[in-house]
Amino acid sequence: MMSLSIATPSSVTFTSKINLSKSSFNGIRIAQFCPVNHARTANYMTSSSMGLVVKMAKREEELKEIRTKTTEELQEEIVDLKGELFMLRLQRSARNEFKSSEFLRMRKRIARMLTVKRERELEEGINKRISRKLDRKWKKSIVPRPPPSLKKLQEEEAAAEAKESA
After folding, report:
1. What is the 3-state secondary structure (H, E, C) of the chain?
2. What are the tens digits of pLDDT across the range 127-141?
3. How far is CA 160 from the centre of its chain?
4. How far apart are CA 156 and CA 162, in angstroms?
């Protein structure tokens, strides 16, 4: 049989050298009694901060890659990424398996490309009003086409059918 006793802060005395401040908290703070392994937390903090540095480096590399492309290549890739984003939305609505992190990754990549495109327009002296006018013309000129992932899937299916028929 187990017994349970409840103690109030005034009825408990500690003989250790731990400094307990008076508060309205009726209990023991475990963090005060457990020694913390500072070496482990220091390694964790270093590794997590290093992870941030690596992420920043990847982002910088991606921006350098984007800036090396021409405006036409950027526009083509934006169209492809928007098509991929649409395919992801279709997969989500059909409740198929997909990586939800791809939404954020694609949206950010599209935003980076549009930012670089706008930076180039500003360098050329194109103001906001003309830029929007050019964007409308560009959007109207886009020919609907399947995204690269759908093309790849169709090619794989065609190859599988050819293999089965042969």
Report:
1. CCCCCCCCCCCCCCCCCCCCCCCCCCCCCHHHHCCCCHHHHHHHHHHHHHHHHHHHHHHHHHHHHHHHCCHHHHHHHHHHHHHHHHHHHHHHHCCCCCCCHHHHHHHHHHHHHHHHHHHHHHHHCCCHHHHHHHHHHHHHHCCCCCCHHHHHHHHHHHHHHHHHHC
2. 889 989 988 888 888
3. 34
4. 10
What are the structure tokens assigned to 123, written together? 């360098």
66-101 burial, b at 16+ Cβ within 10 Å, e below that, comes to beeeeeeebbebbbbbebbbebbeeeeeeeeeeeee
Tokens of 139: 């959007």
Q: How many residues does the chain have?
A: 166
Give the global pTM: 0.58
Which one is predicted more confidently, 46 or 68?
Answer: 68
**Domains of the chain, earliest start first:** 55-144 (1.10.287.310)
- CB-based contact 147:80 (threshold 8 Å): yes
Q: What is the pLDDT confidence band of residue 19, given thresholds at 50, 70 and 90?
A: low
Integer CA distances (angstroms), 155 to 79, 84, 86, 158, 162, in order: 20, 16, 19, 5, 10
